[in-house]
Write the structure tokens for this entry.
Amino acid sequence: MTSAYHTDLHMHSRFAYATSRNLTLPVLDATAREKGVRVMGTGDFTHPAWFEELRTQLVPAPEEGLHVRRDADQHAATRFLLSVEVSCVYRQGGRARRIHVLVMLPTLPAAAAFTRALEERGADLGIDGRPTLGLSAKAVAELALTVEPTALVVPAHVWTPWFGALGSKSGFDSLAECFEDLVPQVLAAETGLSADPAMCWQVSSLDAVALLSSSDAHGPRTVARETTRLEGELSYPGIREAFRTGSPARAAERAAAPTRLAGTVEFYPAEGKYHLDGHREHGVRMTPAQRRAAGGRCPVCGKPVTVGVLSRVEELADRPVGTRPEGAPGFRSLVPLDEVLAAALGVRPAAKRVATARARLLEAFGDELSVLTEVPLADVEAAAGARVAEGIGRVRDGEVDVEPGYDGQFGTVHVFPADDAPAAGPHRQASNP
Ligand SMILES: [Zn+2]
Ligand SMILES: [Zn+2]
């Protein structure tokens, strides 16, 4: 039994819109191991073609409720957890709602039963690996919990304006408004790339849920850009217990749980593409105060700007910035290794020199998350040079500058100060996965 491990439970397959063709089970297995992720969501299990691959290529892992590739070395293989993200489009309280919800299940028969239940309600599941349903988030939770009482139902990227359960455009003011009497069975919520736990801690109603982070990757490169770290037993029931006891409200039960939520690995939230407010088409980025001063409108075209995550948190916050509820697991903010290497070497993240440096580091230390978080900097320096070690040190210490993202535009991270740059320019423009 592994004692501490990273999970990345929100993923997509190549059958979801705008995803990489490389998203096959062998690639996901290998990528997760390179990144340092032990348990990976399959994503998209309601899609018939992807489910057929899951059914034929996966077998139960030695640990309850998890799966491994049939042909893989059973000890080292990435553990897969059956997961899907659904898009609920409906009306409630006189408003249009669009809410993304993750559903996780321990067995293929349970996944098949959930899929059948959606089909019986008229869902067309063959179009998109992230199906759009005319069902409420609560109805989806009810179906999942009926099929499998230990189902995990997790509202995805809760703060994003368009599809977050708490988002500015079509969300609610609390998870209780969204899930009503089922809210006690919603054990966790995903913070999303544009927010981090510290932002969520300002909203006391979120003390009832564990805060998860995951990559929501649409291609192999972005796997593990956010993760949730667990300690203890590796199994579906263990993961569920870690979520159940991962909230500040249930912190007292945590010590007795077989598996515990140890914290999350985060993007710098300003790097997320909905962090600030603005209108991307006109290059207008605004802080919440600037948006209020402008009457909420783009100064170029006069249209209402997209209200981002920071504003939305401010709106719902009932605690000051800097509050940390007792019993809240911690987090650390990182920059993906390729981006750090690119900054240190003065090349683009896709450059060959980055791949060479990464290969050297993986050979020496095993996986990317270990390099980013644990390996002593002197060892990093010996393997990849002083500049790379300095870059990783800066990321670990939070000494990076971020030009915030807004209205669908990712932010830009500067690992090194602008006047400290090798010729080719050390910064990156984060790209849409
Ligand atoms: Zn989503
Ligand atoms: Zn505009």
